[in-house]
Model the fold of this input.
Amino acid sequence: MGLTLNDRKVLAKRWADGDSAVSIAKGLGCAPGTIYAELTRGHTGELDRNSRPMYDPERGQAAYQANLRKRGNRGRRCKRPGTPKGAKEG
Done:
């Protein structure tokens, strides 16, 4: 499961306070790559007082939800075990 809106708000506060992405990741219990991807997702196009990209948790959440809608239902792609190749699921 990805980050929740509350996780994103914690990320925004800690990022604005000057914490590193690695320390934020440790605090949230996720990989640093997740934090860097989220910072990119919620980037506002401006710099904060620390001269780092400004992060908006609402923008990050909206982008995450939009990406979920675009990817579709992955569960339908999987065939049941034993289904012959080329047979239709249904």
